[in-house]
Amino acid sequence: MAALSDPVSDFLTRWKNASRARKEEFSAPFSRLKAELARILQEEGYIWSYEVDTTGAHPVIKVKNKFTGTRAVVTEVKRVSKPGRRQYVQVDEIPRVLGGLGIAILSTSRGVMSGSQAKKQRVGGELLAIVW
Question: pTM of the prediction?
Answer without folding.
Answer: 0.93
